[in-house]
UniProtKB/TrEMBL annotation:
Transmembrane segments: none annotated. It comes from the Bacteria. Residues 8-255, 322-424 form the ATPase BadF/BadG/BcrA/BcrD type domain. It comes from Syntrophomonas wolfei. SUPFAM superfamilies: Actin-like ATPase domain (SSF53067). CDD domains: ASKHA_NBD_O66634-like_rpt1. This is 2-hydroxyglutaryl-CoA dehydratase. Gene3D superfamilies: 3.30.420.40.
Length: 424
């Protein structure tokens, strides 16, 4: 007779983890996969894959994770809060731990185990978690693994806010625009995660003794683990880093499932079609911006009334004027004549290097510039104003709000309100 297996489904904000334990709590199946917002499809695929591996065995199942409540209901399975699931796994597999730090896709958790159980978890903001790291990696045109590689070659650590991704970008963009090394920014991102976790969750409570580091980000990013160890001043022997640190919450759910009703694996498979068709009725949805195609067309026509008059650069002769907007994420350029006619324009991402993107623009512009056209003055605005002005000997630097107003006044004399949404 086949012994009962125990499955834990950890359905997180960015990943799905599936663990199956045997009757001696040994892992017989484990899979960690990003779902890219296709949660139901990913779960169905992993469950079917697990079935192929272990067959139609009797099993118990428990769901956990930030995205697991509705899915547990649709699959008619039990649900366990992830902090509790993690604690159960700690008690079973690493009972010597005094403190456990666990980072997920959008959650950060600290569990104090010595001197009374105390569990702490972040709120609704994903600042200082795996999603935050992913977002900062995109800013540096890499992924989380690339960020780790960059951080391993750092020389300087800068202060960066991790409470919010927007605040962090507000710190990082000026550093990029001022030429800070990507390696130094990468390690600074990791350090900001450490600072946010310790200050936001520990709140002054001492993190001492044997400290377990758990969760996907801490498993896959050794440089992040190093930042925790150095910041907490922990010796190597004080760090507990299990082989399956990324599966710990799922393992806790599997352990907790032992109290659930047994089913055969085939019964779980039979519930999957219902999962794929299910939809949460409680989701609140916005009304459409336009009630009809006519409203949309009227909107487009109204906003198309103010367009810059354009002239062909290749036929132009005379004086012209160059404006550069070195923004937080993009670089824009416009070349105009004495009448304000647009001769040349460019809009593109700066890939974290406003100098290189400006070089690209100028090289393209000078290739197109005819012999009789003369750039007699230039101005730069935006986040990278100082850097671009110094690097390219631009004639003028202007505060971007004044630049906005100057352009708005040209198109709409007497303008009294300007709304601009930029990269930062």
């Amino acid at each position: 007779m086949n012994a009962v297996l125990h499955m834990g489904l950890d359905i997180g904000s960015t990943t799905v983890k599936v663990v199956i334990l045997d009757d001696k709590d040994r892992m017989v199946y484990a899979c960690y996969r990003r779902h890219y917002a296709r949660v139901k499809t990913t779960i169905s695929n992993l469950i079917r894959d697990a079935y192929k591996r272990v067959g139609n065995r009797p099993l118990t199942v428990m769901v956990t994770g930030s995205a697991g409540i509705s899915l547990a209901r649709w699959l008619e399975l039990g649900f366990l809060q992830e902090v509790i699931a993690c604690h159960q796994a700690i008690e079973r597999f690493i009972p010597e731990s005094d403190v456990a730090i666990e980072l997920g896709g959008e959650d950060a958790k600290i569990t104090f185990l010595t001197g009374g159980l105390e569990q702490r978890m972040n709120g609704t903001c994903a600042g200082g978690t795996g999603s935050f790291i992913d977002q900062m990696a995109v800013l540096l045109e890499t992924d989380a693994a690339g960020l780790n590689d960059l951080a391993s070659r750092h020389k300087v650590i800068y202060p960066i806010a991790a409470r919010c991704g927007v605040f962090a970008k507000s710190d990082i963009q000026p550093l990029l625009n001022q030429g800070a090394a990507r390696e130094d920014i990468a390690v600074s991102v990791f350090q900001s995660v450490v600072n946010q976790t310790i200050s936001g969750l520990a709140c002054g409570k001492s993190i001492r003794g044997k400290v377990a580091l758990l969760g996907g980000p801490l498993y896959f990013l050794p440089e992040l683990r190093k930042r925790f160890q150095e910041t907490l001043q922990l010796k190597d022997e004080d760090i507990i880093f299990p082989d399956e640190a990324q599966f710990f919450v799922a393992k806790g759910a599997a352990l907790a499932s032992k109290k659930e009703t047994e089913i055969y694996f085939s019964e779980l498979l039979e519930r999957l079609p219902g999962l794929e068709q299910a939809q949460a009725q409680e989701i609140w949805r916005l009304e459409p911006l336009f009630a009809s195609e006519g409203e949309l067309q009227a909107f487009r026509q109204r906003h198309a009334r103010y367009r810059a008059s354009c002239q062909e650069l290749e036929y132009f002769r005379g004086d012209c004027f160059l404006g550069i907007d070195a923004g937080s994420t993009t670089t824009k350029a416009a070349l105009i004549d004495n009448e304000g006619n647009l001769l040349y324009s460019y809009y593109g991402g700066n890939q974290g290097s406003p100098v290189q993107s400006t070089v690209k623009i100028l090289e393209d512009l000078y290739r197109r510039l005819p012999a009789g056209a003369n750039i007699v003055n230039s101005a730069v605005t935006g986040y990278g104003e100082g850097l671009i002005k110094a690097a390219f000997s631009v004639d003028l630097g202007e505060v971007e709000t004044i630049a906005h107003f100057t352009a708005a006044e040209f198109f709409q004399p007497g303008v009294n309100f300007i709304l601009d949404i930029g990269g930062q």
